[in-house]
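Query structure, 254 tokens:
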């Protein structure tokens, strides 16, 4: 498998509007973060996780022209408001895109973006909405899902498996459960939320994330969903070799 970090920033990105870089060095290109999203690929299957508001720019920056399926982790704006950019993928495929979410999130997305799922008098539907199960086969990739606490809702934590390789993706959670630890255990790569150093009510902070990494023991971990307090070079210097901050455009083939 292969994955690409399309975006690793928070809901406001880095820098924030107003050219607010916070503690991030504006001279370091890896501090420029779009809203969080990843692409996971096998030789025959390409899965997009979340349609961020920066989806168009992310696809252009990484020369992506199609995906075989979409998974939404949840329905918060920074994870779904780029949904309209799937129209171009629809035009390339010439059929609605298989689009997965947990039942409550799928219902919300269909209500908010009904035209994308049901179509319109003048426009066809672009998304084939499907419920994301605990174990789902998408092409030749097996996707396993766990519900993560995220404030008053849950987000979908994901494990992708293909040809004895495993990639886990855990963003937007405020606490770690036993079910999460079981799903993420001993994966090859763990891409995990680390919003900031200070605790946050709905997101993992750095110490919490490192504790979770120590518990699930992945071969390698990448921090994502980082805010303007998380400078790339400073983090890179402090973290052990098996943990690194992600950056937009980072790609790794297993």
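Result returned for the query:
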């Amino acid at each position: 498998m292969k994955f690409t970090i399309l975006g690793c920033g928070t809901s406001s990105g880095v820098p924030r509007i107003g050219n607010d870089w916070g503690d991030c060095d504006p001279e370091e290109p890896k501090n420029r973060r779009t809203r969080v999203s990843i692409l996971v690929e096998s030789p025959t299957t390409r899965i997009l996780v979340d349609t961020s508001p920066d989806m168009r720019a992310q696809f252009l920056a990484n020369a992506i022209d199609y995906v075989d399926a979409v998974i939404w982790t949840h329905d918060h704006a920074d994870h779904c408001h780029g949904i309209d950019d799937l129209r171009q993928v629809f035009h390339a495929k010439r059929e609605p895109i298989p689009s997965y979410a947990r039942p409550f999130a799928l219902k919300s997305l269909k209500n908010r973006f009904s035209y994308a799922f049901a179509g319109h008098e003048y426009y066809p539907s672009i998304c084939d909405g499907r419920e994301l199960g605990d174990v789902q086969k998408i092409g030749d990739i097996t996707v396993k899902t766990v519900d993560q606490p995220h404030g008053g809702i849950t987000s979908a934590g994901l494990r992708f498996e293909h040809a004895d390789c495993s990639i886990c993706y855990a963003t937007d959670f405020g606490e770690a459960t036993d079910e999460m630890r079981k799903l993420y255990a001993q994966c090859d790569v763990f891409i995990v939320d680390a919003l900031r150093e200070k605790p946050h009510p709905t997101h993992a902070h750095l110490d919490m994330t490192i504790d979770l990494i120590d518990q699930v023991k992945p071969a390698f971990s990448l921090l994502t969903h980082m805010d303007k307090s998380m400078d790339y070079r400073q983090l890179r210097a402090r973290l052990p070799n098996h943990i690194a901050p992600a950056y937009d455009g980072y790609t790794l083939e297993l």
